[in-house]
Amino acid sequence: MKTSLLLLLTLLLQPLGANNYPKREIRGVWITTLGGMDWPAKPARDEAGRKAQQKDLCEKLDLLREANFNVVFLQVRLRGDLIYPSEIEPMNRIFSGRYAHSPGYDPLAFAVAECHRRGLECHAWFITYPVGTQAEVRSKGSNSVVARRPELCKFFNGQWYLNPGLPETSDYILALVREMLTNYDVDGIHFDRIRYPENAERFPDDEAYARYGKSHSLRAWRQASINRMVRRIYLWVKRHRPWVQVSLCPLGKFAPLLEVPEAGLTAYDVYQDPLTWLREQTLDMIVPMMYYRDSYFYPFVDHWTLRRNGRLFVAGLGAYKLTGDGGWTLEDLVSQMDYVRSLKADGLTFFRGAQLFGNSRGLYTVLKEKYFRYPSLLPPLTWLSEERPAAPVNLRLERQGRLLRLSWSMPEAASHAPSSLRYTVYFSRSGRVNTLLAQHILVTGLMDSEIYLSAEAPEEELSFRVTASDRYHRESRPSREVYYFTGYAP
């Protein structure tokens, strides 16, 4: 409660700016668990270590909340191992120091709960086909997929991979999806490395091609194998957990363009076919990895925007280029953010968390103070649901000592269960609340039907309205408006 109170008070005292902030926008970050690059910093071998891991994540999520982020892409499948207990694959050793051992808590369950507590969505980020180096596979012993399902795996260029051309590989990935979505209340499932490796012309899948390729060219068969799995996973998710968003992150350059004939490595080169995913609408969100500058960035963003076909397009930006030998300036990223917004894309996300949490070249500061200055709702998934929730009722303002309690409820006959709803509180200092403006959003993503505010602000009249959103991000009509004059002392 104390953290939420301080956050709300800070927001309430901000001056209103010009109307150049989107009310709806995905603002995401990839949090990498591989090697503890973003989280956790070190394995937990005792209670103090567990508490340190949990405290570390909470502090990072607090930073995201304070900067008005709304989506976390949390890496839950790394290289044939997981960050949660499973009957199919072992837990990664980064959490406990040993493969297939628990750190004494469930990292994914903890992360989902802490994200939701802060109004953040948690999307489970899966590394799809790579399952590790020879040394990594050996260290997992009999728990590795190479040992348990050797018929699914191929060794190529120093790495083990699941063979995308086998129907049984699709069965295996879908089993992981089923298990996770059955056990965890994630908001999305996000597939990365859903492709063949670089230089895959000689990938050792001759036997699978001879069995399943039929009259197709090798390229067409490889693309079709991935496409069938994408389609199958999407249809299963929509039958069983329709509100869970399925997203894929292909390479940002999908194929050479007329204006960029020498594009370097593209999605086409690794047998990805994202334009078919979009054409068939077997995903809810496309998140291309746009880790390029200049002519390798802007023309491809244009083309993604034009080809999204009613699905969400979120640009993945290379924040990691700000550090190490990346050589990027903050202005490089700022220009890309400006351009993505100018095209009215559905949002942006940053790879990776370390550059945000470490404020590399001032990135976190410029997002918090300028680009993400006001909260933003998530774009509605209109193709999944047409029914909006009912508007909240019984909006009340009560003074309790030095605090104001703003509370509301849902109509008894409402069709949505209260546990499935998230609330947005709008406010204004003068005149009526305008629920179309981001500047009037006080806070969004609330799970509780009450908030507490400071009653010790300068003398002014405050107005409030509340809306409810379901898990498809469909927003209700606003509640009635309530008012409070801060100088009044009963």
Explain what the structure shows.
The protein has 490 residues and is of the alpha/beta class. It has 13 helices and 19 strands. The protein has helices at 2-12, 47-66, 107-117, 134-140, 145-148, 167-183, 206-212, 218-240, 274-280, 298-306, 330-342, 353-357, 363-371; strands spanning 26-31, 71-77, 121-127, 130-133, 153-156, 159-162, 188-192, 245-248, 285-286, 289-290, 312-317, 347-350, 393-400, 403-409, 422-428, 441-446, 450-454, 461-469, 482-485. The longest helix has 23 residues, at 218-240.
Question: Characteristics of this structure?
Answer:
Immunoglobulin-like; about 500 residues; TIM Barrel; alpha/beta; 19 strands; eight-stranded parallel β-barrel; 13 helices
Please give the domain count.
2
User: Biggest β-sheet, characterized?
Assistant: 8 strands, parallel, barrel
Residue share in helix:
25-40%
Query: What would the CATH topology of the largest domain be?
Result: TIM Barrel
Structural class: alpha/beta
Compile the SSE list and pairings.
Layout: H1 2-12, E1 26-31, H2 47-66, E2 71-77, H3 107-117, E3 121-127, E4 130-133, H4 134-140, H5 145-148, E5 153-156, E6 159-162, H6 167-183, E7 188-192, H7 206-212, H8 218-240, E8 245-248, H9 274-280, E9 285-286, E10 289-290, H10 298-306, E11 312-317, H11 330-342, E12 347-350, H12 353-357, H13 363-371, E13 393-400, E14 403-409, E15 422-428, E16 441-446, E17 450-454, E18 461-469, E19 482-485
Parallel strand pairs: 1-2, 1-12, 2-3, 3-7, 7-8, 8-9, 9-11, 10-11, 11-12
Antiparallel strand pairs: 4-6, 5-6, 13-14, 14-17, 15-16, 15-18, 18-19
Helix pairs in contact: 2-3, 6-8
